[in-house]
Amino acid sequence: MSRLTQDMLYQGRIFDITRERHRMPDGRESTFEFLRHPGGCAVLPVMADGRLLLIRQFRPSIGDYVCEIPAGRLEPGEDPATCVRRELIEEVGYHAAGLESLGFIYSSIGFCDERIYLFVATDLEQREAALEADEYIEPLVVDLATALTMIAAGEIPDAKTQTALLRYALNKRV
Residue 106 — pLDDT band, cuts 50, 70, 90? Predict the structure, then answer.
């Protein structure tokens, strides 16, 4: 597929919206509207005793709290590991000496190009959290079995968190 044209419909602080004309693999041309996002990172902090540090964050877009892992948007040119270390300190007040990649996911490929890099953080050292003015976050420490039960019960509806927890659980069993 190749992009033939692109018109900027909206340019914002967090994302842009474009209308694009593409040539499909069979030669047809189609028009799409996309949300263009710089990408983000998310991290599953693992405490020294093996328990996991999740967060309960108020999300105005849905008007409710969501149980998830710390995450944030990549700054222009920022390395994913740098981003995730920054977010870990900002949101929960921990520095990680150990950082392992769990790969990445696309948040919603039907209309958005956001790529979220997933990590596991270990060897945590507590620091002072530095929440941004528009964030409300409460820490939630659980063991892996509880986190997996929460996924099964629908108590963790966030896709990046589900994926990180499941990949972490699968890696632990290997």
Answer: very high
The boundaries of the domain holding residue 156 are 40-173
Mean pLDDT of the chain: 94
Whole-number Å distance between alpha carbons of 51 and 147: 10
Q: If DSSP codes are grouped into helix, strand and coil, which group holds residue 127? A: coil
The residues, ordered by sequence, that sit 6+ positions from 82 with a Cβ below 8 Å of its Cβ are none
| 27 shares its domain with 53 | no
Q: Are 23 and 53 within one domain?
A: no
Per-residue pLDDT tens digits for 128-151:
888 888 888 999 999 999 999 999
pLDDT the model gives residue 173: 62
- Compute the radius of gyration of the chain from its Cα atoms: 18
User: Considering only CA atoms, which of 174, 170, 173, 159 is closest in space to residue 42?
Assistant: 159
Q: CA angle, 149 as apex, 47 and 142 as ends, to 5°?
A: 20
CB 125 within 8 A of CB 108: no
pTM metric for this prediction = 0.92
User: 103: closest CA among 167, 147, 172, 55?
Assistant: 167
Residues 13 and 58 both lie in one domain? no
